Amino acid sequence: MWGFVLRRLIWMVPTLIVISVISFIIIQLPPGDYLSSYIARLEALGTTVDQATIDALRLRYGLNDPIWVQYFKWLGNIVFDGNFGYSFEWRLPVSQLIIERLPTTFLVATCSLLFAWSVALPIGIFSAVKQYSLGDYFFTILGFLGLGIPNFMLALTFLYVSNRYFGLSIGGLFSPQYLNAPWSLDKFIDLLSHLWIPVVIVGTAGTAGLIRITRANVLDELRKPYVETARSKGLHPMLLILKYPVRIALNPFVSSMGFILPGMISGEVIVSIVLNLPTTGPLLYAALLSQDTYLAGAFVLMLAVLTVIGVLISDILLAWLDPRIRLS
Amino acid sequence: MTDGPIISIRGLEVAARSRHGMLRPLRGIDLDLPRAATTGLVGESGCGKSMTARALLNITPSPMRITAGSIVLDDGKTPPVDLAALDPDGAPMRAIRGRRLAMIFQEPMTAFSPVHTIGNQIAEMLLIHEKLGKRAAKERSIEMLELVGMPNPRQHFDAHPFKLSGGMRQRAMIAMALACKPDVLVADEPTTALDVTIQAQILELLQRLQQELGMTVLLITHDLGVVARTTRRVAVMYLGEVVEETTTEALFDAPRHPYTQGLLGSVPRLGSRRGKRERLPAMRGSVPPALAELPGCAFHPRCPKAVAGLCDVVKPRMAEVAPGHRARCLLYPEVLAASVALEAA
Description:
The complex is a heterodimer of chains A (328) and B (345).
Chain A: H1 2-28, H2 34-44, H3 51-60, H4 67-81, E1 86-87, E2 92-93, H5 94-129, H6 134-148, H7 151-164, H8 185-222, H9 225-232, H10 237-243, H11 245-255, H12 260-266, H13 269-275, H14 280-289, H15 293-321, H16 323-327
Antiparallel strand pairs in A: 1-2
Helix pairs in contact in A: 1-15, 5-6, 5-8, 6-8, 7-8, 7-13, 8-11, 12-15, 13-14
Chain B: E1 7-18, E2 21-33, E3 38-42, H1 49-56, E4 65-73, E5 81-82, H2 91-96, E6 101-104, H3 118-129, H4 134-147, H5 153-156, H6 166-178, E7 184-188, H7 196-213, E8 216-220, H8 224-230, E9 233-238, E10 241-247, H9 248-253, H10 258-265, E11 319-322, E12 325-327, H11 333-344
Parallel strand pairs in B: 3-8, 3-9, 6-7, 7-8
Antiparallel strand pairs in B: 1-2, 1-4, 4-5, 9-10, 10-12, 11-12
Helix pairs in contact in B: 3-4, 3-6, 4-6, 6-7
Family (chain A): Belongs to the binding-protein-dependent transport system permease family.
Membrane topology (chain A): Multi-pass membrane protein
Transmembrane segments (chain A): 9-29, 106-126, 138-161, 195-214, 248-275, 295-321
């Protein structure tokens, strides 16, 4: 088991190097760079920028260097100084920008995940065990509705209803008076009163898919002969379902968990924009729009690294759950 | 201790509604299992053997359920109980299942959960039915593994099913089924998925345990050789009914039902007097689907001896055609009399 983990860790190194090269190429691919789009915007505002200024700026940001020099500068700074570069747009270090938003991002993402799982797993199991029952149909319809309604639509509706009928301040994670206040019980309660909206919205979309997957997985397992064996032993039906089919139906879940980690950072951009959430999604979106090279690059790299780590975690979990992987 | 059968099945029917009509895999089974002996249940695929086994434990796969008849379990120590009348998921049925009536399955690979150790799955039986702690259950499970001839039982307790060979898995399955020393063991094709040499070992093991523990065994198989070797009485099934039931010797010496005769005739024999060029007589067709509703005798379309106007009209009843030998074929006057009498009534 430990050999397996070590082997996987060593393999991560070349993977990450390749990923960093590809990330850098991807962010350099669009024509132009931050300066050209910056100048275009200034000119649109009627300001003329003389060529000398432009050249000075290009030199300062190292935009005249060949691409591989830029790459090694970029990677060297990250590896040796933990310096992800400077955001042109925000005029702040990239790392500071991202770190500011990470706690809220993980808070929203973790809460929506827990919400989606705690709703979807029991319903999925119920739907499988009572296949084609009234309850199964009810939850299936509800699930498809959740899958079909676009998230931003749901977000707008929630905003409208919570403001119109409950008088809550809308958007963001805090009411204005708590935004810069130190932590207190009141601020925490205020956070909770805002948090449930994105959690429910983001969770609903995930829930529908999860219900379908759980239902299909458990249904597959319910037909397996070992379920009949367990029945023949006189095991309580509820305990039986939880110990055998559900346990084995969880494996596909765990193997897809690798993609949850990057999804936490990049996911739900539209909902976050609509709800004005201080998360990383909108930041990534803006960085890509304005060709904010180093900010976008840091994101792409971070997403790739998180994917690799996520896959490693899910492989380890899977090996732990399924002896056929661990022992053979 | 009474001398009557430990299990007596009467008029047992299992059915389910389907898109195409009523599925009726069991159409009125009458069968007695004599105490502390092995009874064979034979027939082609699709005749309802396995469903009979499942109905016995009241674990018919949904949406199949017992729709008529009774299964009386009388172990001579506790009051007789009709299993067919119990709720399949209820506590009384679950207390019987595994403890007094246990089952072993055809595919020891898939019949074990792949992600739990065999020890866990054997000990579970003891944890469900006997008030044992985890450690005591483990010790008992290891004893059971030893009893069924598992090498290194202590190490294999922690083995996962995929680490064991087919024969060892079937031994583990037997250890699990016998963990609570059940009165009745239902073995559904226990050797079909195994190599021939392993088959013999497993059959020998089952026979030895049956005698040592004084168990009643219902051995379900399509292999007549297995029946000849291990059983005292045999029932032959066709399309959800028992068509012949007698002692093993009588069945092989003088089969009465044309279906049984066909089954026995289609077994190849070494050194038979049949000429080299002669073909092995094979039975025509196969068992009709569980949906089929045939007038008269269910076997008449395939029967070489069918009499037009009789076999396709009158429903045959089970009747004694020789002492201790019952059959369901209108060619015997006893059956004809019983069937016509019932038709008239």
